[in-house]
Design goal:
66% helix; single chain; DUF3703 domain-containing protein; globular; 113 residues; mainly alpha; DUF3703
């Protein structure tokens, strides 16, 4: 069950598309992180975001990030279903599993619209 409005869902898809089209690895990660901030209320989108992060980590031969994403893939959907996820978390291994973070202003505006 998704708790995302159609507008926020569209924003998620724009960020995921931008990640695919990004010219640099840093830009891809940035868009995936932004998509992650949006995704937790929807179990499927949340899990798919972590799958995309895992693929990028594997492509970059980043074992630490890949292992962290495997763990997150397992806990993403249950966390979404129970509402146990940290607000604003970017979904990366350096962010910590349950560390709340500041939501970028432009995304926060979309959440409240």
């Amino acid at each position: 069950m998704s708790r995302l409005s159609p507008q926020v869902r569209a924003l998620y898809h724009r960020e995921m598309t931008a990640a695919t089209a990004a010219a640099s690895i840093e830009q891809r990660w940035r868009h995936l992180e932004r998509a992650h901030i949006i995704s937790p209320p929807d179990p499927l989108l949340h899990k798919m975001n972590h799958v995309a992060m895992l693929k990028l980590a594997l492509r970059e031969h980043d074992r630490r990030e890949a292992l962290g994403q495997l763990v997150r893939i397992v806990v993403a959907a249950p966390g979404s279903l129970t509402g146990r996820y940290p607000q604003g978390n970017t979904g990366r291994v350096d962010a910590g599993l349950m560390t709340p973070m500041t939501v970028p202003a432009d995304l926060a505006e979309q959440f409240s619209a």
